[in-house]
Amino acid sequence: MTDWHKISLEKLSKQLETPDGYIRLSGPLERDNIVNGDGLRAVVWTQGCPNHCRGCQNPETWSYEDGFLVEIDEITRRLSEFKGQSGLTFCGGEPFVQSKACKQIADFVRKELGWNVWSFSGFTYEVIKEYGKEPWEFLKSLDALIDGPFILEKRDLSLKYRGSSNQRLLHFEQGSGKILDIE
Fold first, then answer.
1. CA–CA distance, 16 with 24 (Å, rounded to integer)
2. Which tens digits make up the pLDDT trace of 52-93?
3. Which of 21, 120, 133, 147 has its CA 20 to 30 Å from the CA of residue 178?
4. What is the pLDDT of residues 100-121, one digit of tens each?
5. Angle, alpha carbons 101-105-110 (nearest 5°)
6. Exposed, middle or buried: residue 97 (CB in 10 Å: 0-12, 13-18, 19+)?
7. pTM for this predicted structure
8. What gap in Å lies between CA 6 and CA 164, rounded to an integer?
9. How wide is the angle at C-alpha 5 spanned by C-alphas 44 and 151, nearest 5°?
10. What is the distance between the alpha carbons of residues 38 and 36, in angstroms, rounded to a whole number?
């Protein structure tokens, strides 16, 4: 196991604590987004990130104390009002440090709204799978994941949905976490 992998597992273990039924957001829900996944998408901007990537476009989302708590029921109610969306993307911050809340929202939009679900993560698929627990359960609820930390030296603006060339766009078999395709 590399040092980076071990450190990533330790960082993933630092889950952001919120009361049951709540999620900590860094900003308002977004709709009609076309840059954070395929089609017109709603976006949930999560608060809290242990990775602190140099050159991060959202450093204001790093703190586990900033942002604001919102009831998951309020999130799902508001998402239900968004018309014309084909999917939901979790951005941040780091969605995988609020895996339980994100999975609840993901399950709702898939079942009730028929949307596909994507997420960004500074953690790799391999780290999330090895760590298991709630982060792995959240991953299994996804259709796609953009994984890996943003690396400023590998920044590449020509990549679709990604900021640096080390990041991958992984497509999953829904419900299993099995990788179907890697872009």
1. 8
2. 999 998 999 999 999 999 999 999 999 999 999 999 999 999
3. 21
4. 999 999 999 999 999 999 999 9
5. 145
6. buried
7. 0.96
8. 22
9. 60
10. 7
Contacts of 130 (CB under 8 A, 6+ apart): 9
Q: Answer yes or no: is pLDDT of 166 > 90.
A: yes
Residues 6+ apart with CB under 8 A from 135: 12, 96, 99, 123, 128
Q: Which two tokens stand for residue 59?
A: 């450093």
Structure tokens at 69: 């708590």
| Sequence spans of domains, the chain | 3-14+21-182
What CA–CA distance (Å, rounded) separates 61 from 94? Answer: 8
Fold of 3-14+21-182: TIM Barrel (3.20.20)
